[in-house]
Amino acid sequence: MTVHYLNALATILAPENLIAMVLGSLWGLLAGALPGISTSMGVVLLLSFTYTMPPMTAFVLLVGAYLGGITGGSITSILFGIPGEPSSVPTVIEGHSLAKQGKASYAMWVYLLCSIFGGLFSTLVMILATPLIADFALRFGPAEYFALTVLGLSVVSGLSGGSLVKGFLSCFFGLFLATVGTDGITGEERFTFGTVTLLGGFNFVVVMVGLLAVSEIFLEAEEPFQEYKGAVEYKGLLGELPPFSLFKRYWITMIRSPIIGTIVGALPGAGATIASFLAYGEAARTARHEPEKFGRGAVEGLMAAECANNASTGGSMTILLSLGIPGSNTTAMLLAAFMIHGMQPGPLLLSTRPDILYGIFVAMILTNLLLLVLVGMSIRLFLQLNKLPYSIFSATILILCVVGAYGLNNSMDDVLLMFAFSIIGYFMRKFQVPVAPCILGLVLGDLAELSLRRALLLSGGSILGLVSSPISAILLAGATISVVYPLFKKPKGIRGV
Question: Domain limits of the chain?
Answer without folding.
Answer: 2-494
